[in-house]
Amino acid sequence: QVQLVESGGGLVPPGGSLSVSCTASGSIFRLIQMAWYRQAPGNERELVASINSGGAINYADSVKGRFTISRDNANLYLQMNNLRAEDTAVYYCNLIDARSRYWGQGTQVTVSS
Hints:
By secondary structure, the protein is mostly beta strands. It has strands spanning 2-7, 10-12, 18-26, 31-39, 46-52, 57-59, 67-72, 75-80, 89-97, 101-103, 107-111.
């Protein structure tokens, strides 16, 4: 079983920066991918960025050029720059290994003046 714990969310004004982190613990069996998703009120959960075991990275069009995903062993990071009001959401860490798919509990990011 794998546990994911996010941290680093908070309130930031438009145009500001924020980083969120995720720490994975437990028994990871053949890691396939780690990713950040987000869900705003009334919306479906959407992929923000992903990084696979080979290091290939994918971003949602809405965050390209503003967000940077990185991974260090079992730690996942998301650096968010030039934040917009529409980036307000709960951000979830996701991990896929050869056995299952796991989710963190989420961390709130609010972009507001």
